[in-house]
Amino acid sequence: MQEFTIGSLARQANVNIETIRFYERKGLMPNPQRTPAGFRVYSQKDLQRLNFILMAKKHGFTLKEIKELLDLRVNPDSTCDDVRKKAEIKIKLIEQKLQELRRMKKALKTLMASCHGSNPAGECPILEAFEHHK
User: Fold this and answer.
1) Which of 38, 40, 16 lies closest to 30, judged by CA?
2) Percent over 70 (pLDDT), the chain
3) Are 50 and 23 in contact (CB under 8 A)?
4) Tell me: the pLDDT tens digits for 43-82?
């Protein structure tokens, strides 16, 4: 069985040591085994769990949502459909964010059209709009 120190685990997963400690504090990573000298020791299973967290994060899941996915994974009563529902909810949230980003882009383009670039920054229509909530 391969064992890792926190540094080697961090290198394997391409993360900072503090990231691992943070995930431990948040309950996403289990408390590691310790050597008699008190050093953390991680297993291949811990590396797989860390990679799971990182991949779920890359797919837009929050730490709370990742915890829920991890809980589903070990719950013998959960099904693939339970996981699918979590993914569907995430897709809906992503679609809402995309709509909001498009709205923000359109509003900013409108503001930019009113700015000709030659006025002093204190008279910039973009800054004035932010100040006056236009």
Assistant:
1) 40
2) 99
3) yes
4) 999 999 999 999 999 999 999 999 999 999 999 999 999 9
Q: What is the CATH number of domain 1-61?
A: 1.10.1660.10
- Sign of the dihedral defined by the CA atoms of residues 109, 111, 116, 119, in that order: negative
Question: What would the two tokens of residue 47 be?
Answer: 């590396």
At what angle are helices 125-132 and 80-113 packed, to 10 degrees? 120
Q: CB burial class (10 A; 0-12, 13-18, 19+) of residue 117?
A: exposed
Both tokens of residue 82? 């339970």
Express each pLDDT in 22-54 by its tens digit: 999 999 999 999 989 988 899 999 999 999 999
User: How far, in Å, are 104, 105, 107, 130 from residue 126 at the CA level?
Assistant: 13, 13, 10, 6
